[in-house]
Write a structure and sequence with these properties.
It is a single chain. The chain has 14 helices and two strands, in the order H-H-E-E-H-H-H-H-H-H-H-H-H-H-H-H. It has 312 residues and is mainly alpha-helical. It has two domains: 54 residues, no CATH class; 230 residues, MetI-like fold, CATH 1.10.3720. It has a two-stranded antiparallel sheet. A hairpin with a 6-residue loop joins strand 1 and strand 2. Helix 3 packs across helix 14, helix 4 runs antiparallel to helix 11 and helix 6 packs across helix 8. The protein starts with 11 loop residues before the first helix and ends with a helix. InterPro entries: MetI-like, MetI-like_sf, UgpAE/MalFG_permease. This is Sugar ABC transporter permease.
């Protein structure tokens, strides 16, 4: 008599394969999600993606004429405009100039912003509302107005401080870059201070209490507790400042009226503006694309460097 057949059981792997998969959760309220995303997506595409695409398209075109006075036509020129960009000495000199500008001005500006933010956050300082407003007021002044105001203060013939401006020519070729740096610092210190101060306000008060119980004074708390915790805000302001440095335009443009040392190629953005005024829109578009790439590379490199340093 044969033994009764024993039903074969599936191996664990087979059972797992036969087990029905969990159904994916259905996305609800798709219409509401689309309604919220569509306005931003539309504006982002119209005012960011489309201009970038159009600039790249224009940078690939060249102007051709039939004869000396023939009608100008735009034809595809490949990388012709980019070859001219890399052969343009004044453009690269302007990039080197603003990099030197940023290497000196950005640390000074952010150092002052950090100092003012720490002072406003200190329990030893009185009149915080007044000083917070006083530090921020210069940022409320438009950049062009600020440049005109400081231009008059620097001018030997117009300045109320003629005793100083006659002995030190702030508008000379050696000092005009740092005169512009002073204007930018005056305007943007308060803006960066508010970003850092907002980060300070988000620190829990219990950390300060614990530090004081350990015998730490205000300077020690600022150095060992506050600054490390607000480092992301400081990095954010540094990235904004790097981008703003490479986009410097309003202040040099105004200072051209006060100093002959500020030429039409003094900064990269001024070079783009002057080239488009010739007009040579295709070359100006190529300048813009290269400048945008340089800004992205510099900002991304700085961000990665700081992130790697924080990870250690």
């Amino acid at each position: 008599m044969s033994a009764p057949a024993v039903p074969m059981t599936d191996a664990p792997g087979n059972a797992a394969r036969k087990r029905p998969r969990a159904a994916r959760p259905r996305v609800q309220h798709r219409g509401a999600i689309l309604a919220f995303v569509l306005p931003f997506g539309t504006l982002f595409a119209l005012f960011y993606l489309v201009p970038i695409g159009y600039a790249i398209y224009q940078s690939l075109l060249v102007i051709e004429r039939e004869g000396t006075f023939g009608q100008a036509t735009e034809v595809f020129g490949g990388l012709t405009q980019y070859i001219l960009v890399f052969q343009n000495g004044p453009f690269w000199q302007s990039i080197g100039r603003v990099l030197t500008f940023g290497a000196v001005q950005v640390p000074i500006m952010l150092g002052l912003a950090l100092l003012f933010a720490l002072l406003l956050d200190s329990p030893l300082v009185r009149g915080k509302k007044f000083f917070r407003l006083a530090f921020f007021v210069p940022y409320a002044v438009p950049g062009v107005i600020a440049a005109i105001m400081w231009g008059y203060l620097y001018s030997p013939n117009l300045s109320p401080f003629s005793a100083v401006t006659e002995s030190i020519n702030f508008l000379s070729a050696d000092l005009v870059l740092w005169a512009i740096a002073n204007v930018v610092t005056w305007v943007f210190v308060g803006y960066n201070m508010l970003i850092i101060y907002s980060a300070l306000l988000a620190i829990p008060g219990e950390l300060y209490e614990a530090a004081r119980l350990d015998g730490a004074g205000q300077l020690r708390i600022a150095w060992s507790v506050k600054i490390p915790l607000i480092m992301p805000a400081i990095i954010l302001t540094a990235i904004f400042s790097i981008i703003g440095t490479l986009q410097l335009l309003a202040e040099p443009q105004v200072f051209r009226s006060f100093s002959s040392a500020v030429t039409s190629t003094f900064t990269p953005n001024l070079t783009v503006y002057s080239t488009s005024s010739i007009p040579n829109f295709n070359l100006a578009a190529a300048f813009s694309v290269v400048l945008a790439l340089a800004t992205f590379i510099l900002s991304f490199t700085f961000l990665k460097f700081t992130q790697r340093k924080e990870a250690k």
